[in-house]
Amino acid sequence: MNRPGAMIRGRTDMRAPEAAVAIVHARGAPSGSDEESVLLIRRTERPNDPWSGHWSFPGGRRDPEDKDLVFTALRELAEECGIQLGRDRLEASLPPAAAGRRVGSAITVAPFLFRVESELPTVLDPNEAVEALWIPLSLLRDPSRHCLRRVPRLPREMAFPAIELNGVPLWGFTYRVITEWLRLHSREDSPEEAGFAAAQMLLEFLLAQGLTLRQSWSECDKALVAEVGGAIPVATVLERFSLAGRQIPAVNAVEIREDSIRVVGLGLEEYVIRASDH
Question: Has domain 19-181 been given CATH number 3.90.79.10?
Fold first, then answer.
């Protein structure tokens, strides 16, 4: 692999958490099987909600009266799903993660993992959620369910790693937290090495389509940049990388245009392939 001498590091600046989510992990199904599952809700579509219609964990912003973010997660779980859990069910605190928004800056969210012995019934607040599913962990671990795809209400040139659930993509913040929690990406490489490998795979695919390499990877404006000759075949690239494979996509997002491809890696580092003769 044509690896540059120095890797671009991911972004480490992150605000203190302002919100929390509850990852409710059921150790067994009601049938008594050993299948593990996790609770997800599909949010009600509302014009003022940046996560309108998304699959997500129960959760929300911290209220001034909340004594801590664990309390926030449990309160939101009770309000949105009708599930009352005690703090004794807390299994782990996962690393805070940034949740993007279409308008305004991202917020930092604290994910908390709660353990229950079996799947619990839900009573949804219709103002918050229209559907709840207990998703088997085996489904989330299956690479054939993961692919890069476009998502509703975002530019068509953007593609994100996602899993389809009932016709709606599970993507973004919730997807990233799930892949981190279940350790779905290889631990042999750093996030930046995994992101570079994904960008290099895209570059090699373009060269196989007849584009020519004008400039190998070099650092430019806090990104690694390569240059090719020819127009990028947007539809062909999208079709190829929207197919599920044997590996889960090791990226956060890909932006594909005729004049460039931008890859945002797992560490939020960026790789850019520019086309000089588009």
Answer: yes
